[in-house]
Design goal:
Shape: globular
Number of helices: 12
Strand order of the largest sheet: 1-2-4-6-8-11
Strand content: 15-25%
Order of helices and strands: EEEHEEHHEEHEEHHEHEHHHHH
Helix content: 40-55%
Radius of gyration: 18 Å
Structural class: alpha/beta
Number of strands: 11
Largest sheet: 6 strands, mixed
Distance between the termini: 36 Å
Length: about 280
Amino acid sequence: MPVSTSVTDAGVAVVTVDYAPVNALPVRGWYALADAVRAAGRDPGVRCVVLAAAGRGFNAGVDIKEMQRDPGHDALLGANHGCAEAFSAVYACEVPVVAAVQGFCLGGGIGLVGNADAIVASDDATFGLPELDRGALGAATHLARLVPQHLMRALYYTSRTATAAELHAHGSVWRVVPRAELRAAALELAHEIARKDGTLLRLAKAAINGIDPVDVHRSYRFEQGFTFEANLSGLADRIRADFGGNGHGGKGPASQGHGSEKPDSEGHGGEDSDDDVRSKEGGRS
């Protein structure tokens, strides 16, 4: 199944996304993910949720090709609403959510992990928003929860990526481990959380969300309005027409600090072959 849930006997639900080849989610995928996270949070036997993904990368955003096949705006509107639902489900999940991130985490992936309560990442994980390369805007709200304001802006404008080690240095990634140890490390943190009283954990989650200085729901929806404006004007179509070609990379010398790993994503992503993804992966060296 593209989105599946398993529950350990220690009160941890693992929601796993598996949309080959790069976990670029179609509209129905975002809604399925939202439903799975909400259901896990409502389960009285669950005290923590691990959000994980199968394959080489955690998330490449939305399936751009689904939008390219749509002559109107239905797919775009569906992706906008679907992303908002999934991001909100993670944020509003009744229990803490630990994101287990490997490989690329782009676009919509940033919306998911930015709204998670904790992040455990593999040492090959990279995080970024290639929105401007794909005719979109959005999820700066969530990137701003991962890195300082000026770094967020620089990453956003250049479409560059930050490594798991860099995010760990900023305090947004709890732990960085070899890829082979990612699941165990995420479960270790989740089980530590799940040893607390379930009712008190739910109260703690509601209390922390209640003192958040930024309304992430309103902020992200505000951003989405500009994405729709870019589409109505035809600007987004002109940029997406170059999708998969040469054109609009955020690539630059590795010595500048940040890579430009973009598995054909809109920063809300794009479905592509494994070879196409590999050819576009950059990163810091």
